[in-house]
Amino acid sequence: MPELPEVDIVKQGLAPILTGALIERVILNRNGLRLPFAANFAQRLSGQKVIHVGRRAKYLLFTLSSSEVLLSHLGMTGNFRFAQPDPQTGEIKTGFQKHDHVIFELSGTDAPAPFLVYSDPRRFGFMELVEDIETCKFLVGLGPEPLGNALTAASLAEQLHRRKAPIKATLLDQRVIAGLGNIYVCEALHRAAIDPRTRSCDLAATPGTPGPALESLVLQIRLVLNEALQAGGSTLKDFRKVDGGGGYFQHRFFVYDREGEPCLNENCKGTITRIVQSGRSSFYCPECQNT
DNA sequence: ACTTTGACCTGTGCGC
DNA sequence: TGCGCACAGGTCAAAG
């Protein structure tokens, strides 16, 4: 599901509620998600206060009073919501749904309900408790945040100039830029008029030097992510904001999931085409994406 | 060293 | 109505 804008929207929804909250206890309804839960995962969280809620790439980072960090990746279908106990019995488990895997009972916060529920039908997400995020294997090696100052056309050119893989595949590589996924890569390439099949190295004029297309690409990546953030993210099926509402950026896609429909660029008569690159759908306009 | 494929899961939508 | 297949926002290990 969630790419950088969606994960950030979740962070924005959770941060004001969770910061300062006490985790009374944690209930696990299975042994793990994509990865097994760490030993004593629930016990280690219980009694801790949440000090800070942050994000790096597509990871949510909950800093705890022990200075450990709870790291949460939403995979394709992970989401958080607040829930009430069953009004009849007060039971925590009743009234919850099939794919509610982790339940946090909170106190010391004016949350809309006392239980924070992590649900994830496909279980591609995972949670990990890490002592030191500086050396954490999930975070080391991640590329720059696309909305931060570390990403520049020159820094991207440095990454691209020796890669022969299509630019589409390279932009999905979290070591190159951290946080992009299939939707926003397709959209950014369209806005920058770059064919997704273009060899990455062909966008770097000389080693470390961006050509004009690369300057445009960096700009358009930033623009599309910011617009999606403004719109509350993209809700296809599973993505929900913490308050249960959906984002609406999906109504502003120029290419994603628009196979066979007309290109929306003014003066372009092209038809959006779907191809498969490294096993994933790429949507693009063969007429105006010709760099 | 590089790139593509398959695997991990469940749900949904489509064609027959 | 039901069945089977293709496909889905992500990532990793394995195979080419």
SSE blueprint:
Layout: H1 4-18, E1 22-28, H2 41-45, E2 50-56, E3 59-64, E4 69-73, E5 79-83, E6 100-107, E7 115-119, E8 126-130, H3 153-160, H4 167-172, H5 182-191, E9 204-206, E10 209-210, H6 212-230, E11 273-277, E12 280-284
Antiparallel strand pairs: 1-6, 2-3, 3-4, 4-8, 5-7, 6-7, 9-10, 11-12
Helix pairs in contact: 1-6, 3-6, 5-6
The chain binds a DNA duplex (16 and 16 nucleotides) through helix 5.
3D architecture notes:
The mean pLDDT is 93. The strands form four sheets. Strands 1-6-7-5 form a four-stranded antiparallel sheet. It has 291 residues and is α+β, with helices and mostly antiparallel strands. The chain contains six helices and twelve strands. The chain folds into two domains: 4-130, Alpha-Beta Barrel (N-terminal domain of MutM-like DNA repair proteins); 153-284, Helicase, Ruva Protein, domain 3, CATH 1.10.8. Strand 11 and strand 12 (280-284) form a beta hairpin. The two termini are 29 Å apart. The structure holds a DNA duplex (16 and 16 nucleotides).
